[in-house]
Amino acid sequence: MPDPAAAAAPAPFDLRDFRAALGAFATGVTIVTTRGRQGEPVGLTVNSFTSVSLDPPLVLWSQSLYAQTLPAFQEATHFVVNILAADQVELSKRFAGDHDDRFLDVEHIVPEHGAPVITGCAATRTATMAAIT
Q: What's the pTM?
C-alpha cells in the first residue's frame, strides 16, 4: 500500500512552476495550514497573500495578533499555502469561520513535515518559516 506522506512529498523547487502558480493566483484567497503543538492540523483563510520576490522565492501573508491560530504558526517550522480553486468558496468560508474542527470532512494529506495539504486546490506550496513579526 503506498505511503500517503511519501506521495505528498514536495517536488524539488522549480522557479518556473512557482511563477506559474503565482500567475494563476487571481482570487487573492488562500488557506494557510500548519501543525499545532499537540499535532493537530491548523488552518485559516488568508486574503492578504502576496508574492514578494521570485529570486529568492518569497511570499507574504498577514495574520491578526489576536488570532487563535497565531501560536501554532509562531512555533511552526513549515506551512502550506493552498491556493484555492474557483469552486472552493465554501471551503474558504469554513476556514474563515469559527469552527471547532475546520479539517473535519476536508480531504487533505499530511506529508512528513506535518503541515496539511488540502487536496483539490489550484496550487499548493510548502514553505519554511522565515519570520513572523
A: 0.76
Q: Taking a C-beta distance cutoff of 8 angstroms, is the pair 70, 133 a contact?
A: no
Backbone angles phi, psi at 105, to 5 degrees: 65, 20
Q: Average pLDDT of each block of 10 consecutive residues along the chain (133 residues)? A: 52 73 67 94 89 82 88 92 90 87 93 92 84 49
The superfamily CATH assigns to domain 4-128 is: Electron Transport, Fmn-binding Protein; Chain A (2.30.110.10)
C-alpha cell at 12: 524539488
Handedness of CA 24, 115, 89, 11 (dihedral sign): positive
Q: How many angstroms separate the CA atoms of 66 and 26, rounded? A: 28
Under 8 Å between Cβ of 92 and 84? yes
Partners of residue 82 on adjacent β-strands: 31, 124
Give the position of cell 496539511.
116
- Residue 51: all three cell numbers together: 508574492
